[in-house]
Amino acid sequence: MQLSSISRTETKRLLDHAIGSAGMTAKKLADIIGVPESRISEGRRNEPGWSLKQEQAKKLIDTFGQPRGARGRFIRAEVAPSIDEFLNRWPGESRKRHLEKILKHVTGTKYRHKLASKLTVAGKTLPMPEILSSFEKFINSGEFQSWLIGAEKLLDNAQSFGPINTELCRCLSESTYYDFDRLADIDVQAERINIPTDRGLEVIASGFNIDIRNVPPMDLLLLGRLYKALSEEKNRADLNFGLDFTFQKHASYAATELKDFVFTGDLVWEKEGFFLDNKVGQPASEELYLPTHQVEPHKIFAPTLEIRDRLVSDDRVWDLESWASYAVALFIDRNCNYNLIIEVGPDRIVHASVVSVVIPTLSGLKLFEELQRLRNWLGLEELPEIEIKKQIASCGGYIPGATLL
């Protein structure tokens, strides 16, 4: 079996440390790790074509210790290959982060226990997995799907009279009582509703050994929409969601892969500030976007399982991202490449990073073209180009078009 190799940079660091700290000759070092002497010189010159195997690297560390690295700034972040790619991917990545937030909420242990307790029929004691399994069968039933269609039309009718309001919540609260296939007959503005009740959703649910009377209909609608959204192939592909969604267990879904970085280069520009208008993210699915406020479009309804006025609720568990502040930092590394950190946060008083993105390599030739695109996104009036160039020059960096004297 072929052993994997470490990077050339790490190879050079380990070889330099072994020779420098122990006064080791190249020949002795080559004998220790079992390679020709010429390999030691190649590795120390960082030449392509060869690097230490994992076992050889471990042997050097066990013998000579781990070399100390350069001082730097640690960050765990998402990765984007360029500023353009970061800007293009931003809406889609916000959808994935929204889904991660939702799944963390509804498949968490606390929420699943709470949902099961709300669905428990009085006088019956059933295990939580059995109750949640019955609930899933219920929301997959034709009767529930018919109710969901009717409730969504009711939602549209109510919204035609203005933003989502208490009238809508009232109508939805009554929708599970009346026959599930007669919701179209409900008058949003009527004081009294004359519709049969013998085929109401509450009656249907009892056939699945669950009681939905303690679950707000708004929550049933949102949970039904979530289940539906995560069953559609297009949504699953867009969100890179490859799991079989269920309320019965925790969904270990990560929106994006986070990587660890240590920035050891010189800082040439940093800027912290506030967006003119908040950068509002995209919902995981449009079906899950039910705003509670006109002036704050990122605040949306969530299935909290609490029967209370949703318009004044403090539960913000499904809200969209709304970034108010930013911080950017540009570094030049030892190879004269540029590394960029972009951070965003929700606070308009002081910046506190929540999402961090690293662009590991920016070419010096097109550095300022890329930074101009970032400037537009940040809403800066101008880029401090002269100051950045002064700082780059002081660090020995390359400035396109500048004459060296």
Strand order of the largest sheet: 2-1-6-5-4-3
Give the mean pLDDT. 87
Q: Give the helix tally.
A: 14
Q: Sketch the topology as an H/E string, one letter per element.
A: HHHHEHHHHHHHHEEEEEHH
Structural class: alpha+beta
Report the helical percentage: 40-55%
The rough form would be described as elongated
Q: Mind summarizing the main beta sheet?
A: 6 strands, mixed
Total beta-strand segments: 6
Q: Which runs of at least 5 residues are low in confidence (pLDDT < 50)?
A: none
User: What is the domain total for the residues?
Assistant: 3
Strand content: 5-15%
Radius of gyration: 29 Å
Ends distance: 55 Å
Question: What report would you give on this structure?
Answer:
The protein has 3 domains: 57 residues, 434 Repressor (Amino-terminal Domain) (Orthogonal Bundle), CATH 1.10.260.40; 131 residues, no CATH class; 99 residues, no CATH class. Helix content is 40%, strand content 13%. It contains 14 helices and 6 strands. A 6-stranded mixed beta sheet has the order 2-1-6-5-4-3.
Which descriptors apply to this entry?
elongated; single chain; 6 strands; alpha+beta; 434 Repressor (Amino-terminal Domain); 405 residues; 3 domains
In short, what is this structure?
By secondary structure, the protein is of the alpha+beta class.
Write the layout of secondary structure elements.
Layout: H1 8-22, H2 26-33, H3 37-44, H4 54-64, E1 73-79, H5 83-106, H6 109-119, H7 128-139, H8 142-159, H9 166-175, H10 201-206, H11 217-229, H12 233-238, E2 259-263, E3 266-280, E4 322-332, E5 338-345, E6 355-362, H13 367-378, H14 385-394
Parallel strand pairs: 1-6
Antiparallel strand pairs: 1-2, 3-4, 4-5, 5-6
Helix pairs in contact: 1-4, 2-3, 6-7, 8-9
